[in-house]
Design a protein that fits this description.
It is built from 25 helices and 17 strands. By secondary structure, the protein is an alpha+beta fold. It folds into three domains: 155 residues, Glutamine synthetase, N-terminal domain (Ubiquitin-like (UB roll)), CATH 3.10.20; 247 residues, no CATH class; 112 residues, Four Helix Bundle (Hemerythrin (Met), subunit A), CATH 1.20.120.1560. Strands 9, 10, 11, 12, 13, 14, 15, 16 and 17 form a nine-stranded mixed β-sheet that branches. Helix 11 packs across helix 12, helix 13 packs across helix 17 and helix 22 packs parallel to helix 24. The longest helix is centred in the last third of the chain and has 56 residues. The chain binds adenosine-5'-diphosphate and magnesium ion. The site of magnesium ion (MG) has 3 residues, from loops.
């Protein structure tokens, strides 16, 4: 049967669906004011000026601002937009927006729709309630949002209308960064300039600006929305504060990469479509290890855009889930005892030659460029391991790091056997004989033994792994903005490249190769302690890492201390990424956020224990006691085991009551360590009770119910 006759054969709804069918290219990016859209809406002059700003950086020509704003408005209105908003990223870690409508009364009882260049370029939301960590005293509480033309404006559709969203940075009166985008853009600029400097030294021709690339893999859980609403802990804190592990969860690994259930695939299809409409290059979707856990990943992009797209993905995921009667959980550890969720941060650099500089390549030139980048990253990670750990520190991620197939809190680098072999040869001196690769290895002269892509990466336990042509920072939490870790990575690699370039610039062309060899040799000697190819989940590694002097910062408060290191402040200051004050403000905000989260989680546990769980446990004890009494009196048998059961229920009920009291006392103090210990104690008593009290009397949906979507 031909296609047309098959279509003709379809009836009613199916026919309509078929004729409304659009291929991806037809709707991809339709909600983005992309270069392609701009070309249709802008004059040639304005278009070429703006596109140059976007690709090369620099300031927007104020002369074109009005035209661009008007074009954006016209396009947005044609998409149903009534409002615009500066979409920004305050230090809360999520995104913020305040909407303004386009209307301007015309004085005759009607209105015009207007949007000026001034409004596009700068906004002044009354944003005094965002955390500023003392950067912005209340008397000058103004915060300004400024247009970031390198991330395109987009349309956010609401239930009945639409809003034009303009990605912006957010700064205070004196230009101090109040957000996560500003330092990210600054760090990207710093990195670009060092990469271009190195290109010049190496004689690499420049075709374009260098830039960092990023692909963020996002893990998440889906549960039925009814269960979600029945769990006040999930609604309020994003994680289950109580909950007994189900008998079967992920032991069989039968969920991982398994066939995707219909209800879930419907969600995924919808999510993909919405993200494609927003021009985000979503590529993969699959089931993750834990039941109810999934992953979505894009194709990598320019770092700034990738961060924005990840934030947008997180937002759209929640909305789409709601539409499907599901709740999307982005917390790092929504369920105790099963895998948590991370966000793998795939990072690399595209040089001014347009090539990926972490791709080993196969000619001497590429080899040299690659090995310098590789060593720069090793040096960067070892020097600033504490800062990298701090960048991923959060109350949520603390539950994940170091447990159940999550990378440990010790930051180390995985290179794989082949690269380690090469690194060891460089360490011994350029002329060392290669045993594994065969032949003589001399940086930049002989070519690298060919490295089949992905051949080496079978180590899933490393927090920072080289995976073929990029580094993958796996310790990032699923709920975190990608800005933080990328700011630190960019900064640390910038510093390493700066030091390398300073050495290389001093020598003549003739001696360049020798100097590269020597410089890399020294870097490896100094920083090889950070390289670890073994199993990061073992106790032996914890011991070994200690011997090597690598920091093991287990909790957020410990990790955040790394931001107080004077060397960190010096680096951020030197490369214009964060001033001492800006750095300090972040430290203050993150410490306070951590304390706040522990505080409200603890308080909610006390409430839930007293008002939900204990009444159920007490009622069950009462019923059980009554049953034993009446059965014994009638049957004249002593119910020894039932009495033991009653004793157990009574015992854990008492423990839970005491636990709640103890936690309440701890919450009045200031030690989060004591609070966490009391939380764990209370949880243990309650989770034990959950295994004793009849399911129908238990006031919360169980893990088994929530984790297995049907
Ligand atoms: P893996 O098998 O190691 O997970 P994939 O090829 O599936 O590798 O990529 C995982 C993520 O890494 C994707 O988001 C991908 O786009 C991203 N990625 C690949 N190359 C680069 C690069 N050069 N820079 C940044 N991210 C990259
Ligand atoms: Mg990965």
């Amino acid at each position: 049967m031909s296609l047309t006759s098959r279509i003709k054969g379809l009836e009613g709804d199916a026919m309509t669906e078929f004729s409304n069918f659009q291929t991806i290219p037809e709707y991809y990016g339709e909600n983005v004011f992309s270069l392609k859209t701009m070309r249709n809406y802008l004059s040639d002059k304005a278009f070429s000026s703006l596109s140059k700003t976007i690709t090369d950086g620099g300031k927007v020509d104020p002369k074109i601002a009005d035209e661009v704003a008007d074009a954006m408005k016209t396009w947005a209105v044609s998409k149903g937009a009534t409002h615009y908003t500066h979409w920004f990223q305050p230090l809360t870690g999520s995104t913020a927006e305040k909407h303004d409508s386009f209307i301007t009364p015309d004085g005759e009882g009607s209105c015009l729709l207007k949007f000026s260049g001034e409004e596009l370029i700068q906004g002044e939301p009354d944003a005094s309630s965002f955390p500023s960590g003392g950067l912005r005293p209340t008397f000058e509480a103004r915060g300004y949002t400024g247009w970031d033309p390198t991330s395109p404006a987009f349309i956010k559709e609401g239930p009945q209308g639409a809003t034009l969203c303009i990605p912006t940075y957010f700064v205070g009166w004196h230009g101090e960064a109040l957000d996560k985008k500003t330092p990210l853009l600054r760090s990207m600029k710093a990195l670009t300039s060092q990469v271009e400097r190195l290109a010049k030294i190496l004689g690499i021709k420049s075709k374009q600006r260098a830039y960092a690339t990023l692909g963020g893999e996002q893990e998440y859980f889906l549960i039925d929305r009814d269960f979600y609403y029945q769990r006040i802990d999930l609604v309020q804190t994003g994680r289950t504060l109580f909950g007994k592990e189900p008998a079967k969860h992920q032991q069989m690994a039968d969920h991982y990469f398994g066939a995707i259930k219909d209800r879930v695939i419907e969600f995924m299809e919808d999510l993909d479509r919405e993200m494609w409409r927003l021009g985000a290059p979503i590529k993969t979707r699959h089931n993750e290890v834990a039941p109810g856990q999934y992953e979505v990943a894009p194709i990598f992009e320019n770092q700034n855009l990738a961060v924005d797209h990840n934030l947008l993905t997180m937002e759209v995921m929640q909305k789409v889930a709601q539409k499907h009667g599901l709740a999307c959980l982005l917390h790092e550890k929504p369920f105790h005892g099963v895998n948590g969720s991370g966000k793998h941060n795939n990072w690399s650099v595209t040089g001014p030659d347009g090539k990926n500089w972490l791709s080993p390549g196969d000619n001497p030139h590429e080899n040299e460029r690659f090995l310098i980048m590789l060593c720069a990253v090793i040096k960067a990670v070892d020097t600033h391991a504490g800062l990298l750990r701090a960048a991923i520190a959060s109350a949520g991620n603390d539950h994940r790091l170091g447990s159940h197939e999550a990378p440990p809190a010790i930051i180390s680098v995985y290179l794989g056997e082949q690269l380690t072999d090469i690194i060891e040869q460089i360490e011994k001196g350029g002329k060392a004989k290669s045993t594994k690769a065969g032949g003589v290895l001399e940086v930049g002269v002989d070519s690298l033994p060919s490295l089949p892509r992905h051949a080496s990466d079978r180590n899933r336990t490393s927090p920072f792994a080289f995976t073929g042509a990029k580094f993958e920072f796996r310790a990032v939490g699923s709920n975190q903005s990608l800005s933080g870790p990328n700011i630190i990575l960019n900064a640390a690699v910038t510093q390493a490249l700066d030091e390398i370039c300073t050495k290389l610039e001093k020598v003549s062309k003739k001696d360049l190769n020798k100097t590269v060899q020597k410089t890399l040799q020294k870097i490896i000697q100094d920083h090889k302690r950070v390289i670890f190819n073994g199993d990061n989940y073992t106790q032996e590694w914890v011991k070994e890492a200690k011997k090597r002097g690598l920091p093991n910062l287990k909790t957020t408060p410990e990790a955040l201390k790394a931001t107080q290191d004077p060397a960190a402040a010096k680096m951020f200051e030197k490369y214009g990424i964060l001033s001492q004050k800006e750095l300090q403000s972040r430290n203050e905000i993150y410490v306070e956020t951590y304390d706040t989260i522990i505080g409200y989680e603890g308080a909610l546990m006390v409430d839930m224990a007293r008002t939900l769980i204990l009444p159920a446990a007490l009622e069950y004890s009462e019923g059980l006691a009554e049953t034993i009494r009446s059965v014994e009196s009638v049957s004249k048998t002593k119910m020894t085991s039932s009495r033991t059961l009653l004793k157990d229920v009574a015992k854990y009920t008492e423990e839970a009551i005491e636990g709640a009291n103890k936690l309440e006392t701890a919450l009045k103090g200031s030690s989060t360590v004591k609070m966490r210990a009391a939380m764990a104690e209370l949880r243990e008593a309650v989770d034990t009770l959950e295994g004793l009290v009849p399911a129908e009397s238990w006031p919360l949906p169980s893990y088994a119910e929530m984790l297995f979507i049907s």
